[in-house]
Amino acid sequence: MGSLGPARWWEDCHGLDLSSTPDIVSGRQPRAEMRRFLVIAALFVSRCGAYDRTFIEGANGNLGEALQFLREYDNEASSMCTRVTEAQWLYVTNITDQNKKRMVDALSLQAKLDRVSWQKAIQFSWSSLPDPMARRQLNMLALKGRVALPQDKQEELTKIVAEMKEIFNRARVCPFSNSASSQCDLSLEPELTRVMANSRSYEEQLHAWKSWRDATGPKLRSRFINYVEIANEAARLNGFRDAGEQERAVYGVDDLMNQVSEVWSTLAPLYRQLHAYVRSRLRSHYAPPHRINPTAPIPAQLLGNMWAQNWKNILDLVLPYPGKRRADVTSEMLRQGYTPQRMIQISEEFFTSMGLKPMPVEFWHKSLLERPTNRHVACKASAWDFCNRRDYRIKQCTEVAMDDLLTTHHEMTHIQYYLHYSDLPYVFRDGANPAFHEALADAILLSVTTPKHMHRIGLLNNITDDYETDINFLLEMALDKVAYLPFAFIVDQWRWQVFSEGTRNMNTAWWELRSYHQGVIPPVSRSEDDFDPGSKYHIISDQPYIRYFISLVLQFQIHQALCTAAGHIGTLHTCDIYRSREAGRVLADIMSVGASRPWTEILRVATKGSATGLDARPMLEYFKPLSLWLRVQNRDEKMIGWVTSEQDSALYEQWSRGGSFRVDNCITTTILAVFLATCYSRYGFSH
Ligand SMILES: *[C@@H]1O[C@H](CO)[C@@H](O)[C@H](O)[C@H]1NC(C)=O
Ligand SMILES: [Zn+2]
């Protein structure tokens, strides 16, 4: 049963049904007429309040013509995709100006095709077509990107984003120990990232943190404001209230914002336990005068990462049982004479052991598995689909090391996904939602990372099966995944807020979210002349972020579903689905429908009905042993969580800006304090 019938979009809007007035928008009418309709529609939608909104939809209800269009689109878009992907591959595996130009040319041809196809797609009254697959394809095409903008505006947007990326990529800062001879030429990758990861000096990390923000934010701020305006304009032309609503619509659920907020608040207590434990360890490392207050947020530069989004680099400061370090698989790999080729074969065997597909011939001929010496390449690992149902490749400058072995499994999961949905029409050859590809690839790693799996593939002689090793393992996973939750959550909370409420006090809003959800504060005072969100590439390069949050949660749901299918007994974090044909079948079922079904339905089938949306419980279950351990560790902590004092929030809020801020903040702080007091009495003394 197709769930995309027209009624769905309007049911909460007091019975008004714009889809019954198709004469208003038609591809045959002049554009001005259409704009007027859209403005009216936008006004109407904004009154409706909820998710409901209009679609751009024309008068042509002829199914034959729609199918004809889709067939043509499928051919043209696939071959365009092949052409663009080949140009991109050529460039990233051989970085020259000439190759860049070829890639840019191909991309602009593709943009043209996208625009023309969108204009054709919206001429159909697709929501009333009797063929559900045609309906879904046209719906997905009509929702696409920024193509609704007039060409000059679209070019302006592209130009602004390109400028922002350029500023970001060219930003350089001075070293910490600034002698006369030293040059100010440190970039984010690799130098500053290394300082954040490896330095244990409060001042040096502060220097890297602040100079990176000084070198990016202020130059990006005005361009970003421009970008917000045009992105919103594109969204309105496409029938949305703002660009945030357009981004959320891709997920096809009415209440994405509520779903993610709910899931985050379910997971937040686990995060606060981790936060309290890490804060207490940092307190013992960073001696006075660098006070870390036991009831306050943590200074944002101390967590091993430029945005405090991943804490695994400070594992050495917080490892619970240093005597029980994870066995070093890398040295065993070297001892056994592993090669990149062998690592890829091991990954392939992981999938074939579950009845999934071997890599095709082209994959072995054309993948780039080692860093070439005769040219510049972009080494970030990636998996490629050339859209011709033949050609699939991995690009990875593989080193013989455990992390790289995990990466080959991750990238090969993407290839498995490509192979499984290769028979579908072009529009459906994609993840079930923007988070699915990553969620599957990371779910596979939850199996591959286990000591049990390393043992089964002959890289660990004996598994030390004791409590302390287990806790070390889970804490390391938590620094990677639990620590990331609030950051992955707030990036788009902030961006959606800017799209819907405007660009005033953007930096304050950013820090309110960071201190409230993430429990970090800036180590030095910030103002609206700063633009700290601009220190993050995804924000200035127009890349949606909520997918990372969704993928974090979803990977545990999928892991659990696969482990259930595999008949795993025992705690979730010890499950390895290797060699399970049953798990392989569940995986194949998820992958082979691509984006042709709603992801909620795919999830329902995969979990045998236990979930139809995001669900925090599998992640909580995975970390349960750690969460119990953390509570015991934290029993003497003054507070689980944090209160942002006035002194803290004065770092990023100017009171003079108007009374309302102060009131809001007081209320927030009070609510938080009451809440935390409750936590304290619940957990503080219970063990
Ligand atoms: C890299 O690309 C250039 C064209 O810009 C070409 O002349 C050269 O042969 C390529 N190098 C390799 C190793 O393929
Ligand atoms: Zn990936």
From TrEMBL:
Its cofactor is Zn(2+). Belongs to the peptidase M2 family. Keywords: Carboxypeptidase, Disulfide bond, Glycoprotein, Hydrolase, Metal-binding, Metalloprotease, Protease, Signal, Zinc. Glycans are attached at N94. Zn(2+) 2 binds at H410, H414, E438. SUPFAM superfamilies: Metalloproteases ('zincins'), catalytic domain. PANTHER family: ANGIOTENSIN-CONVERTING ENZYME. GO terms for molecular function: carboxypeptidase activity; metal ion binding; metallopeptidase activity; peptidyl-dipeptidase activity. This is Angiotensin-converting enzyme. Binds 1 zinc ion per subunit. The active site is at E411, H538. InterPro entries: Peptidase_M2. Disulfide bonds join C174-C184, C379-C397, C563-C575. Chloride binds at Y251, R547. It comes from Apolygus lucorum. Its EC number is 3.4.-.-. GO terms for cellular component: plasma membrane. Zn(2+) 1 binds at H410, H414, E438. CDD domains: M2_ACE. PROSITE patterns: PEPTIDASE_M2. GO terms for biological process: proteolysis. The keyword Kinase does not apply. Pfam families: Peptidase_M2.
